[in-house]
From TrEMBL:
Protein name: Formylmethanofuran dehydrogenase
Tree of life domain: Bacteria
Source organism (scientific name): Azospirillum himalayense
SUPFAM superfamilies: Formate dehydrogenase/DMSO reductase, domains 1-3 (SSF53706)
Length: 433
Protein backbone atom coordinates (compact mmCIF):
# COMPACT_ATOMS: atom_id res chain seq x y z
CA UNK A 1 0.00 0.00 0.00
CA UNK A 2 1.66 3.26 -1.07
CA UNK A 3 -0.31 5.58 1.21
CA UNK A 4 -3.78 6.52 2.43
CA UNK A 5 -3.88 9.56 0.11
CA UNK A 6 -7.00 9.54 -2.12
CA UNK A 7 -6.35 10.06 -5.85
CA UNK A 8 -5.78 13.73 -6.79
CA UNK A 9 -6.07 14.76 -3.13
CA UNK A 10 -3.67 17.17 -1.43
CA UNK A 11 -5.24 16.95 2.00
CA UNK A 12 -2.92 16.73 5.00
CA UNK A 13 -1.88 14.73 6.82
CA UNK A 14 -0.92 11.99 4.38
CA UNK A 15 -0.24 8.64 6.07
CA UNK A 16 2.20 6.12 4.58
CA UNK A 17 1.82 2.61 5.97
CA UNK A 18 4.07 -0.47 5.90
CA UNK A 19 7.10 1.72 5.28
CA UNK A 20 10.54 0.08 5.05
CA UNK A 21 13.08 1.88 7.24
CA UNK A 22 16.49 2.00 5.46
CA UNK A 23 18.53 3.46 8.29
CA UNK A 24 19.31 0.47 10.52
CA UNK A 25 20.42 -3.04 9.60
CA UNK A 26 17.17 -4.55 10.90
CA UNK A 27 15.20 -3.26 7.91
CA UNK A 28 11.91 -2.91 9.80
CA UNK A 29 9.08 -2.85 7.25
CA UNK A 30 6.09 -1.95 9.41
CA UNK A 31 6.47 1.78 10.00
CA UNK A 32 3.64 4.28 9.78
CA UNK A 33 4.98 7.64 8.62
CA UNK A 34 2.84 10.75 8.52
CA UNK A 35 3.43 13.65 6.14
CA UNK A 36 2.26 16.49 8.37
CA UNK A 37 2.91 19.14 5.72
CA UNK A 38 4.78 19.08 2.42
CA UNK A 39 8.21 17.46 2.93
CA UNK A 40 7.82 17.14 6.70
CA UNK A 41 7.65 13.59 8.06
CA UNK A 42 6.98 12.06 11.46
CA UNK A 43 7.02 8.40 12.54
CA UNK A 44 3.82 7.43 14.36
CA UNK A 45 4.07 3.67 14.84
CA UNK A 46 7.19 3.19 16.94
CA UNK A 47 9.38 4.90 19.51
CA UNK A 48 12.55 3.74 17.71
CA UNK A 49 14.93 6.69 18.16
CA UNK A 50 16.79 5.95 14.92
CA UNK A 51 13.64 6.01 12.80
CA UNK A 52 12.13 9.03 14.54
CA UNK A 53 15.30 11.10 14.26
CA UNK A 54 16.14 10.17 10.66
CA UNK A 55 12.65 10.68 9.22
CA UNK A 56 12.42 14.09 10.87
CA UNK A 57 15.48 15.39 8.96
CA UNK A 58 13.76 16.59 5.82
CA UNK A 59 14.95 20.16 5.29
CA UNK A 60 13.96 21.93 2.06
CA UNK A 61 16.14 21.49 -1.00
CA UNK A 62 19.03 23.87 -1.51
CA UNK A 63 21.22 24.55 -4.57
CA UNK A 64 24.64 22.96 -5.09
CA UNK A 65 27.70 24.99 -4.18
CA UNK A 66 31.16 25.33 -5.71
CA UNK A 67 33.69 26.94 -3.34
CA UNK A 68 30.75 28.12 -1.26
CA UNK A 69 28.90 29.80 -4.13
CA UNK A 70 25.48 28.53 -5.22
CA UNK A 71 25.46 27.17 -8.77
CA UNK A 72 23.19 25.08 -11.02
CA UNK A 73 23.52 21.31 -10.75
CA UNK A 74 25.19 20.96 -14.17
CA UNK A 75 27.88 23.45 -13.18
CA UNK A 76 28.52 21.61 -9.91
CA UNK A 77 28.83 18.31 -11.81
CA UNK A 78 31.38 19.86 -14.18
CA UNK A 79 33.36 21.30 -11.26
CA UNK A 80 33.40 17.93 -9.49
CA UNK A 81 34.57 16.17 -12.65
CA UNK A 82 37.36 18.73 -13.12
CA UNK A 83 38.57 18.20 -9.55
CA UNK A 84 38.55 14.42 -9.88
CA UNK A 85 40.16 14.35 -13.32
CA UNK A 86 43.20 16.13 -11.85
CA UNK A 87 43.49 13.84 -8.81
CA UNK A 88 46.37 11.37 -8.56
CA UNK A 89 45.25 9.55 -5.39
CA UNK A 90 41.46 9.90 -5.07
CA UNK A 91 39.28 8.40 -2.34
CA UNK A 92 35.61 7.52 -2.84
CA UNK A 93 34.25 7.02 0.67
CA UNK A 94 31.39 7.60 3.07
CA UNK A 95 29.24 5.54 0.70
CA UNK A 96 26.12 6.02 2.79
CA UNK A 97 23.78 5.23 -0.09
CA UNK A 98 21.48 2.60 -1.53
CA UNK A 99 22.43 -0.24 -3.87
CA UNK A 100 22.07 1.88 -7.03
CA UNK A 101 24.17 4.63 -5.48
CA UNK A 102 26.81 2.09 -4.47
CA UNK A 103 26.96 0.71 -8.01
CA UNK A 104 27.45 4.21 -9.42
CA UNK A 105 30.06 5.10 -6.78
CA UNK A 106 32.11 1.99 -7.48
CA UNK A 107 31.87 2.54 -11.22
CA UNK A 108 33.16 6.09 -10.74
CA UNK A 109 35.94 4.82 -8.46
CA UNK A 110 36.94 2.35 -11.17
CA UNK A 111 37.17 5.19 -13.69
CA UNK A 112 39.29 7.24 -11.31
CA UNK A 113 41.48 4.45 -9.95
CA UNK A 114 40.33 5.36 -6.44
CA UNK A 115 40.28 3.70 -3.03
CA UNK A 116 36.77 2.79 -1.82
CA UNK A 117 35.48 2.45 1.75
CA UNK A 118 32.34 3.02 3.82
CA UNK A 119 32.22 5.47 6.71
CA UNK A 120 31.04 2.74 9.11
CA UNK A 121 33.33 -0.07 8.00
CA UNK A 122 35.21 -0.28 11.32
CA UNK A 123 32.44 -2.37 12.90
CA UNK A 124 32.00 -4.35 9.70
CA UNK A 125 35.68 -5.25 9.60
CA UNK A 126 35.78 -6.45 13.17
CA UNK A 127 33.53 -9.19 11.83
CA UNK A 128 35.00 -9.59 8.34
CA UNK A 129 38.53 -9.94 9.69
CA UNK A 130 37.42 -13.04 11.60
CA UNK A 131 35.39 -14.38 8.70
CA UNK A 132 38.45 -14.04 6.46
CA UNK A 133 40.74 -15.79 8.97
CA UNK A 134 38.58 -18.60 10.30
CA UNK A 135 35.16 -18.67 8.68
CA UNK A 136 32.06 -18.89 10.86
CA UNK A 137 28.61 -20.38 11.34
CA UNK A 138 26.04 -17.59 11.08
CA UNK A 139 22.27 -17.40 11.13
CA UNK A 140 19.61 -14.95 9.98
CA UNK A 141 17.10 -12.75 11.77
CA UNK A 142 14.29 -15.01 10.57
CA UNK A 143 15.99 -18.09 12.03
CA UNK A 144 16.52 -16.20 15.29
CA UNK A 145 12.81 -15.41 15.47
CA UNK A 146 11.51 -18.79 14.37
CA UNK A 147 13.92 -21.41 15.75
CA UNK A 148 16.11 -20.06 18.54
CA UNK A 149 15.37 -21.38 22.04
CA UNK A 150 18.43 -19.86 23.75
CA UNK A 151 19.78 -16.45 22.80
CA UNK A 152 23.14 -15.46 24.28
CA UNK A 153 23.79 -11.72 23.91
CA UNK A 154 27.51 -11.06 24.26
CA UNK A 155 28.76 -7.67 25.42
CA UNK A 156 26.89 -4.35 25.32
CA UNK A 157 23.20 -4.51 24.47
CA UNK A 158 22.90 -4.40 20.64
CA UNK A 159 19.62 -2.51 21.02
CA UNK A 160 21.65 0.64 21.57
CA UNK A 161 22.44 0.45 17.84
CA UNK A 162 19.45 -1.61 16.65
CA UNK A 163 16.60 -0.40 18.87
CA UNK A 164 13.87 -2.83 17.72
CA UNK A 165 15.98 -6.01 17.71
CA UNK A 166 14.26 -7.64 20.67
CA UNK A 167 10.78 -6.29 19.92
CA UNK A 168 10.80 -7.54 16.31
CA UNK A 169 13.00 -10.63 16.32
CA UNK A 170 13.13 -12.10 19.85
CA UNK A 171 9.91 -11.35 21.72
CA UNK A 172 7.44 -12.69 19.10
CA UNK A 173 6.46 -16.32 19.46
CA UNK A 174 8.58 -18.63 17.29
CA UNK A 175 6.99 -20.47 14.41
CA UNK A 176 8.78 -23.78 14.95
CA UNK A 177 9.15 -24.13 18.72
CA UNK A 178 6.63 -25.35 21.26
CA UNK A 179 6.28 -23.37 24.52
CA UNK A 180 8.29 -22.49 26.49
CA UNK A 181 9.61 -20.57 23.50
CA UNK A 182 13.03 -19.21 24.38
CA UNK A 183 15.23 -17.69 27.04
CA UNK A 184 17.70 -14.83 26.76
CA UNK A 185 21.04 -14.51 28.55
CA UNK A 186 23.07 -11.29 28.66
CA UNK A 187 26.78 -11.99 29.16
CA UNK A 188 29.00 -9.09 30.28
CA UNK A 189 26.38 -6.55 29.32
CA UNK A 190 23.37 -4.96 30.97
CA UNK A 191 20.12 -4.87 28.95
CA UNK A 192 18.63 -1.44 28.33
CA UNK A 193 15.33 -0.56 29.98
CA UNK A 194 13.61 -0.76 26.59
CA UNK A 195 15.08 -4.22 26.08
CA UNK A 196 13.77 -5.39 29.45
CA UNK A 197 10.35 -4.08 28.47
CA UNK A 198 10.40 -5.87 25.12
CA UNK A 199 11.45 -9.13 26.80
CA UNK A 200 9.03 -8.91 29.72
CA UNK A 201 7.28 -12.10 28.60
CA UNK A 202 10.46 -14.20 28.36
CA UNK A 203 12.88 -15.59 30.95
CA UNK A 204 15.92 -13.29 31.04
CA UNK A 205 19.22 -13.90 32.85
CA UNK A 206 21.86 -11.21 33.28
CA UNK A 207 25.44 -12.30 34.00
CA UNK A 208 27.27 -9.08 34.91
CA UNK A 209 30.89 -8.83 33.94
CA UNK A 210 33.43 -6.60 32.24
CA UNK A 211 32.11 -5.77 28.73
CA UNK A 212 35.67 -5.11 27.57
CA UNK A 213 36.55 -8.72 28.46
CA UNK A 214 33.54 -10.53 27.03
CA UNK A 215 35.97 -12.45 24.82
CA UNK A 216 37.55 -13.92 27.96
CA UNK A 217 34.12 -15.03 29.15
CA UNK A 218 33.45 -16.63 25.76
CA UNK A 219 36.76 -18.51 25.96
CA UNK A 220 35.91 -19.73 29.46
CA UNK A 221 32.52 -20.93 28.23
CA UNK A 222 34.11 -22.81 25.35
CA UNK A 223 36.57 -24.47 27.73
CA UNK A 224 33.73 -25.50 30.05
CA UNK A 225 31.57 -27.15 27.39
CA UNK A 226 33.15 -30.65 27.57
CA UNK A 227 32.72 -30.75 31.36
CA UNK A 228 30.92 -27.79 32.97
CA UNK A 229 31.97 -28.97 36.43
CA UNK A 230 35.51 -27.83 35.59
CA UNK A 231 34.49 -24.27 34.64
CA UNK A 232 36.59 -21.28 35.60
CA UNK A 233 35.45 -17.73 36.17
CA UNK A 234 36.41 -14.99 33.70
CA UNK A 235 35.76 -11.30 33.02
CA UNK A 236 34.07 -10.91 36.40
CA UNK A 237 31.64 -13.77 35.76
CA UNK A 238 31.73 -16.42 38.49
CA UNK A 239 32.77 -19.99 37.70
CA UNK A 240 29.36 -21.26 38.78
CA UNK A 241 27.62 -18.96 36.29
CA UNK A 242 29.99 -20.03 33.51
CA UNK A 243 29.24 -23.69 34.34
CA UNK A 244 25.48 -23.14 34.38
CA UNK A 245 25.55 -21.31 31.05
CA UNK A 246 27.75 -23.97 29.47
CA UNK A 247 25.24 -26.61 30.54
CA UNK A 248 22.33 -24.60 29.13
CA UNK A 249 24.15 -24.18 25.81
CA UNK A 250 24.75 -27.93 25.64
CA UNK A 251 21.04 -28.63 26.16
CA UNK A 252 19.67 -26.01 23.77
CA UNK A 253 18.06 -27.17 20.54
CA UNK A 254 19.05 -24.05 18.57
CA UNK A 255 21.29 -21.59 20.39
CA UNK A 256 22.24 -18.21 18.91
CA UNK A 257 25.15 -16.02 20.03
CA UNK A 258 24.54 -12.39 19.07
CA UNK A 259 26.87 -9.40 19.21
CA UNK A 260 27.34 -5.90 17.79
CA UNK A 261 31.04 -5.62 16.97
CA UNK A 262 30.96 -1.83 16.65
CA UNK A 263 30.17 -1.68 20.39
CA UNK A 264 33.38 -3.55 21.34
CA UNK A 265 36.40 -1.63 22.57
CA UNK A 266 39.50 -1.37 20.43
CA UNK A 267 42.32 -2.22 19.90
CA UNK A 268 41.49 -5.94 19.82
CA UNK A 269 37.79 -5.99 19.00
CA UNK A 270 38.26 -8.53 16.21
CA UNK A 271 39.87 -10.93 18.70
CA UNK A 272 36.73 -10.64 20.84
CA UNK A 273 34.66 -11.54 17.79
CA UNK A 274 36.99 -14.47 17.06
CA UNK A 275 36.45 -15.89 20.55
CA UNK A 276 32.69 -15.63 20.09
CA UNK A 277 32.95 -17.37 16.72
CA UNK A 278 35.03 -20.15 18.27
CA UNK A 279 32.45 -20.51 21.05
CA UNK A 280 29.76 -21.03 18.38
CA UNK A 281 31.96 -23.64 16.70
CA UNK A 282 32.56 -25.50 19.95
CA UNK A 283 28.89 -25.48 20.97
CA UNK A 284 28.15 -27.18 17.65
CA UNK A 285 30.02 -30.23 18.93
CA UNK A 286 27.09 -30.74 21.34
CA UNK A 287 24.04 -29.13 19.71
CA UNK A 288 23.04 -26.71 17.01
CA UNK A 289 24.37 -23.16 17.42
CA UNK A 290 24.95 -20.15 15.17
CA UNK A 291 26.28 -16.62 15.46
CA UNK A 292 24.43 -13.42 14.66
CA UNK A 293 26.84 -10.53 13.95
CA UNK A 294 24.83 -7.30 13.90
CA UNK A 295 25.79 -4.35 11.71
CA UNK A 296 24.25 -2.35 8.95
CA UNK A 297 23.59 1.35 9.56
CA UNK A 298 23.64 3.48 6.38
CA UNK A 299 23.52 0.31 4.24
CA UNK A 300 27.14 -0.61 4.98
CA UNK A 301 26.24 -4.28 4.46
CA UNK A 302 24.62 -3.52 1.10
CA UNK A 303 27.55 -1.43 -0.12
CA UNK A 304 29.95 -4.20 0.89
CA UNK A 305 27.78 -6.71 -0.99
CA UNK A 306 27.93 -4.56 -4.14
CA UNK A 307 31.69 -4.17 -3.86
CA UNK A 308 32.17 -7.91 -3.41
CA UNK A 309 30.01 -8.98 -6.34
CA UNK A 310 31.51 -6.26 -8.60
CA UNK A 311 35.21 -6.72 -7.82
CA UNK A 312 35.42 -10.08 -6.04
CA UNK A 313 36.74 -8.43 -2.86
CA UNK A 314 35.06 -6.40 -0.10
CA UNK A 315 35.45 -2.72 0.80
CA UNK A 316 38.78 -1.14 1.67
CA UNK A 317 40.01 -1.79 -1.83
CA UNK A 318 42.17 0.21 -4.23
CA UNK A 319 41.27 0.27 -7.92
CA UNK A 320 44.54 1.83 -9.07
CA UNK A 321 45.93 0.30 -12.22
CA UNK A 322 42.75 -1.40 -13.34
CA UNK A 323 42.82 -4.32 -10.87
CA UNK A 324 41.30 -4.38 -7.36
CA UNK A 325 43.77 -4.60 -4.47
CA UNK A 326 42.18 -5.34 -1.09
CA UNK A 327 43.97 -4.25 2.09
CA UNK A 328 41.70 -3.65 5.11
CA UNK A 329 44.43 -1.80 7.03
CA UNK A 330 46.02 0.36 4.36
CA UNK A 331 42.79 1.32 2.61
CA UNK A 332 40.62 2.17 5.63
CA UNK A 333 39.18 5.55 4.68
CA UNK A 334 40.33 7.41 7.80
CA UNK A 335 43.91 6.31 7.16
CA UNK A 336 43.92 6.83 3.40
CA UNK A 337 42.36 10.30 3.70
CA UNK A 338 45.71 11.54 5.01
CA UNK A 339 47.38 10.80 1.66
CA UNK A 340 44.47 11.23 -0.78
CA UNK A 341 44.54 14.40 -2.87
CA UNK A 342 40.77 14.40 -3.56
CA UNK A 343 37.83 12.84 -1.72
CA UNK A 344 34.33 12.03 -2.95
CA UNK A 345 32.28 11.72 0.23
CA UNK A 346 28.77 10.26 -0.07
CA UNK A 347 26.43 10.54 2.94
CA UNK A 348 22.85 10.36 1.67
CA UNK A 349 21.36 8.89 4.87
CA UNK A 350 22.51 11.59 7.27
CA UNK A 351 23.67 15.23 7.05
CA UNK A 352 27.07 14.50 8.57
CA UNK A 353 30.49 14.76 6.92
CA UNK A 354 33.73 14.33 8.90
CA UNK A 355 36.46 16.93 9.11
CA UNK A 356 39.25 16.22 6.63
CA UNK A 357 42.90 17.30 6.76
CA UNK A 358 43.46 20.98 6.09
CA UNK A 359 43.60 21.72 2.38
CA UNK A 360 41.90 18.46 1.38
CA UNK A 361 39.82 18.78 -1.81
CA UNK A 362 36.36 17.34 -1.07
CA UNK A 363 33.38 16.67 -3.31
CA UNK A 364 30.47 16.07 -0.92
CA UNK A 365 27.10 14.51 -1.71
CA UNK A 366 24.85 14.83 1.33
CA UNK A 367 21.34 15.96 2.35
CA UNK A 368 20.36 19.63 2.60
CA UNK A 369 21.45 21.28 5.81
CA UNK A 370 24.70 19.35 6.14
CA UNK A 371 27.19 21.25 8.29
CA UNK A 372 30.86 21.21 7.27
CA UNK A 373 33.96 21.95 9.34
CA UNK A 374 35.41 23.41 6.13
CA UNK A 375 33.43 24.26 3.02
CA UNK A 376 34.01 21.52 0.43
CA UNK A 377 35.25 22.28 -3.06
CA UNK A 378 31.90 21.02 -4.36
CA UNK A 379 28.71 20.30 -2.42
CA UNK A 380 25.77 18.66 -4.17
CA UNK A 381 22.65 18.12 -2.03
CA UNK A 382 21.07 14.72 -2.67
CA UNK A 383 17.90 12.94 -1.65
CA UNK A 384 17.71 10.37 1.13
CA UNK A 385 17.04 6.77 0.04
CA UNK A 386 13.63 5.60 1.22
CA UNK A 387 12.45 9.18 1.69
CA UNK A 388 13.08 11.10 -1.53
CA UNK A 389 13.29 8.13 -3.88
CA UNK A 390 12.82 4.34 -3.93
CA UNK A 391 15.86 2.34 -2.85
CA UNK A 392 17.20 -1.14 -2.18
CA UNK A 393 19.07 -1.69 1.08
CA UNK A 394 20.47 -4.85 2.67
CA UNK A 395 19.55 -6.18 6.08
CA UNK A 396 22.24 -6.86 8.69
CA UNK A 397 22.18 -10.62 8.10
CA UNK A 398 23.14 -10.04 4.40
CA UNK A 399 20.52 -12.40 2.97
CA UNK A 400 17.65 -9.96 2.35
CA UNK A 401 17.56 -6.85 0.17
CA UNK A 402 14.55 -4.69 0.99
CA UNK A 403 12.83 -2.23 -1.32
CA UNK A 404 12.08 1.10 0.36
CA UNK A 405 9.73 3.39 -1.54
CA UNK A 406 9.95 7.15 -1.90
CA UNK A 407 7.62 9.18 0.31
CA UNK A 408 8.08 12.84 -0.65
CA UNK A 409 9.51 14.92 -3.48
CA UNK A 410 11.89 17.69 -2.47
CA UNK A 411 13.28 18.00 -5.97
CA UNK A 412 16.61 16.45 -4.97
CA UNK A 413 18.62 14.12 -7.25
CA UNK A 414 19.62 10.69 -5.99
CA UNK A 415 23.27 9.71 -5.52
CA UNK A 416 23.35 7.38 -8.53
CA UNK A 417 22.12 10.12 -10.88
CA UNK A 418 24.75 12.62 -9.68
CA UNK A 419 27.67 10.18 -9.77
CA UNK A 420 26.74 8.92 -13.23
CA UNK A 421 26.61 12.52 -14.43
CA UNK A 422 30.08 13.19 -13.02
CA UNK A 423 31.44 10.02 -14.64
CA UNK A 424 29.91 11.01 -17.96
CA UNK A 425 31.95 14.23 -18.20
CA UNK A 426 35.26 12.78 -17.01
CA UNK A 427 38.00 12.61 -19.64
CA UNK A 428 37.89 9.29 -21.49
CA UNK A 429 41.54 8.58 -20.77
CA UNK A 430 40.82 8.20 -17.04
CA UNK A 431 41.93 4.77 -15.79
CA UNK A 432 39.34 2.02 -16.01
CA UNK A 433 38.59 -0.91 -13.70
Amino acid sequence: MASDRPPHSVARPVVHRDVVCPFCGLGCDDLTVEEEEPAKLAVRSTDCPVARERYSRTLPAEPPRVAGVSVPLAEAVDAAAAVLAAAQAPLVAGLGTDVDGARAALALAGRLGAVVDHALSDGLYRNLAVLQRTGWIATTLAELRNRCDLLLVAGPDPAALHPRLFERWVAPAPAFQAPPSREVVFLCGEPLDTTRGALSGLPVTVMPGDPARVGDAAAALAAALPDPSHASGAAGVAAGDIAALAERLRKARYAVVAWAASAFDEPHADLTVERLVRLVRDVNRHTRCAGLPLAGHDNVVGVNQVCTWRFGVPLRTSLVGGAPLHDPHRFAWARYADVADAVVWVSAFRPEVPAFPAGQTVVALAPPGTAFADEPAVFIPVGTPGIDHPAHVFRSDTVVALRARGLIDRGLPDVATVLKAIAAVLPQEAPAC
